[in-house]
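User
Take a look at the entry that follows and flag anything odd:
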Amino acid sequence: MSRADRLERLDGQRLDAEAEFTGLLITALRETAAGSWGLFGHNSDKFARKAWDPKITELTELGEQIDAMRVTLGLEPFALFAEFLASRGPVASNAPGEPKQAKSWLMKLGEDV
C-alpha cells in the first residue's frame, strides 16, 4: 500500500473519530445542560468528578488520538478538543454555571437546547 493510500485511509479514520468525538461531546453537553455538574470541572465535588471521570477520560483519549492523526496528516490540532480542554477547570465565582455553559456550547454547535 502506498503512502498516499495510507494517508487517505488515516484521513477517513480521522473524520470518523472527529464525528464520534462531537457526538460524545454533544451527549455530555445535553446531560450537563439538564443540570448534571462535572463535565467542565468547575467545582470540587468529588462525587460529581467521579461520576464524570469515565466520560472525560473517553473524550480526552479520543481527542488525543485525533490530534495524533492530525499531526501525521500535517493538519492543525482539533479545535473542538482544544476548546473543550481549555474550558475545563476552576473558574471565578461569578462565572456562568456548567448547565448554562453547556447550553451555550450546544447553541454554538448548532444543536437544539
Notes: The radius of gyration is 16 Å. Residues 3-108 form one domain.
